[in-house]
Amino acid sequence: MLSIILPTYQEEENILELVARINQSLNSYSYELVVVDDNSPDGTAKLAEELNKTYGNIRVLKRPRKIGLASAIVDGIEIARGDVIAVMDADLQHTPELLPEMLRKIKEGYDVVVASRYVDGGKVEGWSLWRRLISRGAILLAHILLPKTRIVKDAMSGYFVFEKNVLDEIRLNPIGYKLLVEVLAKGKWSKVAEVPYTFKPRRRGKSKLGLKDATSYILFLIKIGVKIVNTTIWILGVIFALPTLNAMCWGYATIEVGNPQLALNLLFKLTFNKWFIMSIASILSLALREMGVLADRFLLSLSAVATILVYTFMLGEAPTLMEWIVIMLVMSGVLMIGR
Q1: Buried b / exposed e along 47-65 (16+ C-beta atoms within 10 A)
Q2: How far, in Å, CA of 268 to CA of 75, rounded?
Q3: 3-class DSSP state of 115
Q4: How many angstroms separate the CA atoms of 39 and 8, rounded?
Q5: 10 Å Cβ neighbour count for 152?
Q6: Count H helices, E strands: the chain?
Q7: CATH for 2-206, among 3.30.200.20, 3.40.50.1970, 3.30.465.10, 3.90.550.10?
Q8: Under DSSP, is residue 87 helix (H, G, I), strand (E, B) or coil?
Q9: What is the pTM of this model?
Q10: In which element (H, E) is residue 23 found?
Q11: Cβ contacts of residue 336 below 8 Å, gap of 6+?
């Protein structure tokens, strides 16, 4: 049986049409809909329960507050009855009509099937250049820091189907809103396929994506990357990823100020500042610790001194007392992360 996980928050305007389209697309399949609602004030959960009276295959899990999309999916998977899991958004940006094709791929022996915007035939509609840069940059970061995600071109897709046994004995620790990255990085799969689809703009409601989600995604990559990949290799990946982040910032700055050279000058000033230098020193400190170059008791003091020397050399000024404290806290955090 197929279990379709639908995380919802204020999707009352969309769920009626979505359920009808899923039913029409899968009328020859045995499936259930698992609606995981984060206490939507617009009555999404209540409407889903009413729809169950018509369709008879909708289960609603009510959560007490808005906890997050990825965790909602994990909670849905935990109560799913099917041996195949489909994950999709409830905002109609993921076309239900693609589900039969994705399920055919599962029957052909693929463990994970991803609806992809970035394979031949796939595309995105209604996105600004900045939104496209963010999406591509996020995928590139995942590919750099988590090598297993390179199997697909659209590791940031929120629309995918997989055999439930891919996650046997796997503990998911979702942060933010993208679960596919963790499924690919941790899951027990052997064959993965991508099928093209068109990601459409929202017709109703508002997007929930914000700065908090982007920050959570970066923290998630750091957390899972340290655990899965050899730490020294991962650190090198972070260092190589920094130019990518800078390029994204430069692109955004260019769009905002309308002058590539001025944007580059601004980026240079932002990059070579105290906080950037401390971040690089922290990464290098962790690298030294993981490679066993120095014992813990020497590393903190060495890292702090090195940071201050570089700081003074590049900026021609000594840190303030408060910046000294921050430097020590950062270095202490580095040691804790590496344990």
Answers
A1: bbbebbeeeebbbbbebee
A2: 44
A3: strand
A4: 9
A5: 25
A6: 12, 9
A7: 3.90.550.10
A8: strand
A9: 0.66
A10: helix 12-25
A11: none
d(CA 331, CA 71): 31
Which of 194, 221, 185 has the alpha carbon at shortest distance from 102?
Answer: 194
Residue 179, amino acid? L
CA distance 330 to 325: 9
- CA-nearest of 61, 48, 38 to 17 is 48
**Residues 6 or more apart in contact with residue 44 via CB below 8 angstroms:** 8, 9, 10, 11, 12, 15, 35, 37
How confident is the model at residue 23, as a pLDDT? 96
Which amino acid appears at position 206 of this protein? K
User: What is the C-alpha to C-alpha distance for residues 313 and 166, in angstroms, rounded to an integer?
Assistant: 51
Nearest to 114 by CA among 60, 151, 74, 70: 151
In single-letter form, the type of residue at position 262 comes to L
Question: Where in the chain is CATH 3.90.550.10?
Answer: 2-206
Q: Are 94 and 88 in contact (CB under 8 A)?
A: yes
Q: Does residue 196 sit in helix, strand or coil?
A: strand
**pLDDT for the residue 226:** 46
pLDDT in tens, 164-200: 999 998 888 766 557 898 899 889 999 999 999 998 7
